[in-house]
């Protein structure tokens, strides 16, 4: 919903991933505590002086004298109840208004980067770049791991993983992919006995077997995969919009009703 709100306001977030989603602590746990009480309940962090690697004094007024380790206030995700799961989309430092600014470079993590930022790098990024990253984030939040492997260290490896999961690239992108013949035949078949993880296999292993909660039944599984497929389209003009995601079958029948029941309020008109 936060992504849809930003898009309606005319802004692309530009860096959607789970690290930029914050879990709001219940107000009764923190709002009425003094700073000293917070320290007593958790711990008071010790200051760590800032130093330069060359040993010279730090003179810049923009550099703090000390830094502090963050205070752990949370709890394991599997202990968070749905009524407590109030999320905030944070870090709008890379946000931009595509009607006023031309953005060609994607700043999000390599594994979450929309493919048009690689293959159509002369075309401005649009709202659909957020939808790609959002789809990957929803997948990771629902399952036991990321959609793309966490051990991908280069752009080519990410492209291979995208093709394995979602199928062939658009023809003009396939022709631009210079290292394609190292991993696939011209017909798109894997070379050298390389194991391929298509979408359904990832769903079965990451979202179904890896879930700590009840598995999705056949109807919900189909609706969820339909939504993910609509968000992870190679061609940005074919991606769902944020509003279409909100009104998709999976959101309408499963996600939103659960959230509305837990939070005791209507979320969509």
Walk me through this protein's architecture.
Residues 1-251 form the Protein kinase domain. The chain is mostly helical and 269 residues long. It has one domain (1-19, 35-263): Transferase(Phosphotransferase) domain 1 (Transferase(Phosphotransferase), domain 1, Orthogonal Bundle). It is 39% helix and 4% strand. Strands 1-4 form a two-stranded antiparallel sheet. A two-stranded antiparallel sheet has the order 2-3. The chain is globular. The mean pLDDT is 88.
| CATH architecture descriptor name | Orthogonal Bundle
- According to CATH, the homologous superfamily is Transferase(Phosphotransferase) domain 1
Strand composition percent: under 5%
Strand count? 4
- CATH topology name, in short, is Transferase(Phosphotransferase), domain 1
Q: Low-confidence spans: pLDDT under 50, at least 5 residues? A: none
Rough shape? globular
CATH class: Mainly Alpha
Structural class: mainly alpha
* Total count of helical runs of at least 4 residues: 12
Q: What is the N-to-C succession of helices and strands? A: HEHHEEEHHHHHHHHH
Mean pLDDT: 88
Query: What Rg is obtained from the alpha carbons, in whole angstroms?
Result: 22 Å
Kindly report the oligomeric state of this protein: single chain
* Helical content (DSSP H or I, runs of 4+): 25-40%
